[in-house]
Amino acid sequence: MKFACTLALLLAFASAAPCHAAPARGELELTVVDGDTKEVIPCRIHLKNLKKRPVKIGGESIFYKDHAVFPGKATLSLPPGQYVFEIERGPEYPVMSGHFEMERSSEDTKTVTLQRFVNMAKEGWWAGETHIHRPKEHIELLMRAEDLYVCPVITWWNDQNEWASKTAPVNPLVQFDKNRFYHLMAGEDEREGGALLYFNLAKPLPILGAAREYPSPLKFAEAAKLDQNAWIDIEKTFWYDTPVWLASGLVDSIGICHNHMWREGVYPDEAWGRPRDKKIFRMPRGNGQYTQEIYYHVLNSGLRIPPSAGSASGVMENPIGYNRMYVWCGEELTYENWWENLRRGRVVVTNGPILRPQADGRFPGHVFQAEAGEKLSLNIDLSMSTRDKIEYLEIIKDGQVFQSIRLEDYAKTGRLPPVTFDASGWFLVRAICEHPKTFRFASTGPWYVEIGEQKSRVSKASAEYFRDWVKERIDRVKLDDPAQRTEVLRYHEDALKFWEQKIVEANAP
Known about the structure:
Blueprint: H1 7-16, E1 26-34, E2 43-49, E3 62-64, E4 67-70, E5 73-78, E6 81-88, E7 96-102, E8 107-114, E9 125-128, H2 139-146, E10 150-157, E11 160-161, E12 173-176, E13 180-191, E14 194-199, H3 217-224, E15 231-234, H4 242-248, E16 253-257, E17 261-262, E18 265-266, H5 286-300, E19 307-309, E20 324-328, H6 335-343, E21 347-350, E22 354-359, E23 367-370, E24 376-378, E25 380-385, E26 390-397, E27 400-406, H7 407-413, E28 419-421, E29 425-433, E30 441-444, E31 447-451, H8 460-476, H9 482-505
Parallel strand pairs: 1-8, 10-13, 15-16, 16-19, 23-31
Antiparallel strand pairs: 1-5, 2-4, 2-6, 3-4, 6-7, 9-20, 10-11, 12-13, 13-14, 14-15, 17-18, 20-21, 21-30, 22-25, 24-28, 26-27, 26-29, 29-30, 29-31
Helix pairs in contact: 4-9, 8-9
C-alpha cells in the first residue's frame, strides 16, 4: 500500500483489466487505540474515494449517510484507488485525517492513535444528547464511539411507534459499561406548531392519528406531566408554538444546539417554523444566531429554562452526539442526577468547543443574590479545549453582548472581564468558531442574579415579542371543525393572557 498519489498507476491498472472483471480488492486491517490507555477504542470514520463519495466498511461497523462507526478494529476491503479519511471519537479527541492508496490484492495493517486532549467525565462533566432516531440495537456501539453517557432514544414519533405491535420493556432504562445510560421510551410530537420531545416516560403518549393541528400538543403535554418523571423539551426555539408552550409552564428545557447545525453544513432555513430575517441573520451562522436570540428573549422574560442539544441522527445526516450537552454531576454519574443537574442549569451545549465554566466558583444555573442597592461584580473562570479555532468569546448579559473578546486577547491574560450588575438579570458565555460552512459554537447555561426584592428581570420588549408571536400563530390556525378550533385556540388564548400579564409585570425595557 502506498500513501501517495499515483493516478497514472491507477489508470494503468484500469486499462489492463478486462472490462467485465471486477478489480481485485486490497485489504487494510485498521486498529484505533487511545493514546493514554493503549486500549482499542470504538470510533467513527469518514472514508471517501477519489470522487469524494462515502465508502462503506464491513465487519461490525454501522454505516450511516457519510460515515461508519466501528468497535476500533476493522478490515477494510476496498477496490484499488485513492482514499481520504477522517477518524473521530467525539470532541475530546483530535480528528485524525489522512489519505492512502489501495493497490490490487494488497494486504496491510495500520494502527491509528487518538490522543485525548481533555477528559470531561474526569472533571465531572458528563456528555449526552436529546435527539436520537437510531435503531436501539446500534445504540451501545454508537455511544461508545462518540463517548456519550446519557442518550434517550426516540422509539415513538407521530404515527411511528415501535411498541404498537410488541410489548414495551418493563424497564426502558438500559445501563452498560458501568455508567452509560440510554432510555428506550423517548418520543417526539412533531406537527404544525413544531416539535416537542418527551423523555423518561413509562410508555408512549397516545399521539397516533393526531392531525397537523388537532389535538393541541399541549393536551399530550398535560397528560405526560401526570408522570412525575416526565421531561419535556422544546426541540428548537423558533417553532411556531414556542411561546404557547413556554406559557404553559410544562417545559423543562429548550434546544439551542439543534439539528439544523450539521458537521459540514447547515439546514438553510427554519423549515415550517417562524422564519428569521435573512438580511440580519445571514448564512451560515444565521439560523444558529436566530435560535439563540429567541432563547435570550426567553430568559429576558424571567423564565429560567436550561438549554439543550440534539443532533437528530437517523433523520439528519449528523452522527449522534455532534450536537451535545455536558452536564456537571461531579465524580459520580447516575441517570437521575444527570437530569437533576440539567434541571439546575449546570450545563454547556456545544458542537465544537469544550468549555468548563464557573462564575465566582459557581456552575451555570447558580443564583447570585445581593441586597437592594448593592452592586455585584462576578469573575468568570473559563477553561477551554477545542479542535476548531475559536474566533471570539462573548459574555451575554440580559440578552446583549456585554463583552466580546478576540481569542488572541484572551490568550494574553487568560481572564475574562468581570460582569457587573446593579439590578437583577442573567448572563452566560459563548464561544464562536471560525468555520466556512456551519455554525460551530459552545454556550454555557445562564447564571442568574437577584438583587433586592426583584427576583427576575422581565423585559417588556421580550414579553411583547412573544405576545405578538402568539397573535401571529392564532391567525395561522386552520381548523374547519368549530369544536376542534375552540379547543385548540384555548391554549393560544391562555398564552396570550400569559404574555400580556408579563408585559404588565415588566420591570425592564
